[in-house]
Amino acid sequence: MDAETAAPQPQPETSPQSTPPAVGFAEAAWYWLHLGFISFGGPAGQIAIMQADCVDKKRWIDQQAFLRGLNYSMLLPGPEAQQLAAYIGWRLHGVWGAVTAGTLFFLPGAILMMALAWVAAAHGDNTWVIKIFNGIKPAVIGIIVFAVWRIGKKTCNSIPAVALAAAAFAALHFAHVPFPLIILAAGVLGALIPALGRVGGHGHGGDAGQGDSHHMQRPVGNPWTRLAGITALFLVLLALPVAALVVIAGPAPFLAVAKLFTTAALVTFGGAYAVLPYITEAAVNTHGWIAPGDMLNGLALAETTPGPLVLVNTYVGFFAGWNGAGAAHLSQVAAGLLAAALTTYVTYLPSFYFIIAGAPYVDALQKNERARRALSGITTAVVGVIFNLAVFLGESVLVTASDGVDWTAAAVATGALALLLSGKVPIPALVGIGAVLGAIGLV
Q1: CB under 8 Å to 154, separation ≥6 — which residues?
Q2: Would you say residue 79 lies in a domain?
Q3: Which residues are bridge partners to 404 per DSSP?
Q4: Rounded distance, CA 155 to CA 90, Å?
Q5: How far is CA 416 from the centre of its chain?
Q6: Per the domain annotation, does 365 fall within a domain?
Q7: pLDDT confidence bin for 236, thresholds 50/70/90
Q8: What is the structure's pLDDT at 76?
Q9: How far apart are CA 280 and CA 294, in angstroms?
Q10: What's the rounded Cα separation, in Å, for the pair 273 and 439?
């Protein structure tokens, strides 16, 4: 691989200040806040809303620029819909536009998840709460198995791809290889082995084309100097809040929370389901912050609330503070809220870094064939990773120590999977059905 292939030359930066923006900052901010409250349906639904509003209706960004931003977001770790919102915000109003759009996209859902986590932690022993969650848990097992099928049918379309997915599952389940190492190995194999990089579902079309007509282009000086400055600022923004919180509230569990969720944010290729096994292993087995059943509850709540699915991290973070606080002067509620806020912060900060640092060079990055193949290899391995999650959580819900298989719960999980495969029942409705079955005592 020659130097130009390994490191494509950056393109000129689109400068939001070169011409007046087509939309006022306040108007755009209100839109992003509105989107934060209605962004149900996972990334596909969220991206469809932005396509309809920002491209078709408001014409804030043209189709080709939208598709380039989407393709770039899919190459990054982290929630692609939130990163796409930040990218559109950047094209409209620069750095502050990116920060505003990306933050308001997830903030309503994050606040709601903190409130729901408090209900689960403080009132999880309530009979009605237990019944409702007992119905939800097996439905979520069906949802996870559906995710395996949905991603697997697009990626595991060759013998090498199937072998990579199986190897990822075996490495996690039997050898307990750390998740980041699996992602790294899958990326390297995908880049080096062409057969692993020929999978569908990783692009959304669109040529490099010209950008939207709202902005002109101008050089930005030395791109490496710019990258170094942004990286230094990112490290400061990452370290200062963590250090301040440790000084004020003590190291436990905040240092561990910062380390776990920052690492997770940097390796979340393939969506939230891909990183959940890593989070689950650390939060359940290593730190003892949360039980497997509570992980399922958090995933169900993240599926039915607005915002990215990775907001399940906020739920886990609250439990980390609630159950793992070492500072005697903090109440469980205060520790839970602080840990949840820290979790949310370190989960999304890398997304802003990637968008702000890379947005001016989107065209060049997308021309890197090995980068696209590496992503394909990672996504293939993710099938095995998610299957491992289904096995781990399925054992905690569908198998009991006294009675063996819980056939009623297994029937609910199977029914949930069948309904999802039919394409006629959306995930939030399925979670609601599980909650009703639990409430009336059928599960």
Answers
A1: 199, 200, 201
A2: no
A3: 400
A4: 32
A5: 23
A6: yes
A7: very high
A8: 84
A9: 10
A10: 27
Q: What are the residues facing 14 on neighbouring strands? A: 217
Give the range of the structural domain holding residue 384, as residue numbers without chain letter: 109-210+221-439
97-111, 195-209, 317-331, 347-361: least confident range: 195-209
- 220 confidence band (pLDDT: 50, 70, 90): low
| pLDDT, position 215 | 45
Q: What is the mean pLDDT of residues 358-370?
A: 75
**Are 378 and 188 contacting, i.e. CB atoms less than 8 angstroms apart?**
no
DSSP code, position 217: E
Work out the angle between the directed axes of helices 80-123 and 127-155 (0-180°, nearest 10): 150
Q: For strand 217-218 and strand 399-400, is the pairing parallel, antiparallel, or unpaired?
A: unpaired
Which residue has 């011409």 as its token pair?
A: 19
For residues 36-43, give the mean pLDDT.
81
Q: CA 265 to CA 318: how far, in whole Å?
A: 17
Q: State whether the Cα torsion 323-325-329-332 is positive or negative.
A: negative
433 vs 113, 117, 140, 180, 420, CA distance in Å? 20, 21, 11, 35, 13
Angle at the Cα of 246 from the Cα atoms of 241 and 247, rounded to 5 degrees: 100
Please count the structural domains in the chain. 1
Partnered with residue 400 across adjacent β-strands are 404
The pLDDT value given to residue 83:
95
- pLDDT band at 3, cuts 50/70/90? very low
Q: What's the token pair of residue 317?
A: 């973070």
Secondary structure class of 144 (helix, strand, coil): helix
C-alpha distances out from residue 270 to 72, 215, 250, 403, 436, Å: 14, 32, 34, 36, 31
Angle between the N-to-C axes of helices 272-280 and 254-266, in degrees from 0 to 180, rounded to the nearest 10: 150
Looking at residue 431, its amino acid is: V
Per-residue confidence at 205, pLDDT binned at 50, 70, 90?
A: very low
Identify the three-state secondary structure at position 400. Answer: strand
Residue 44, domain member (yes or no): no
Alpha helices in 174-306 (DSSP H): 179-192, 223-249, 254-266, 272-280, 292-304
Q: What does the alpha-carbon distance between residue 34 and residue 335 come to, in Å, rounded to a whole number?
A: 30
Question: Which range is least confidently modeled, 5-19, 69-83, 229-243, 254-268?
Answer: 5-19
* In a domain? residue 114: yes
User: Measured between alpha carbons, how far is 361 from 349 in angstroms, rounded to an integer?
Assistant: 20
Which of 285-294, 350-359, 420-429 is predicted with the least confidence, judged by mean pLDDT?
420-429
Torsions phi, psi for 425 (to 5 deg): -125, 120
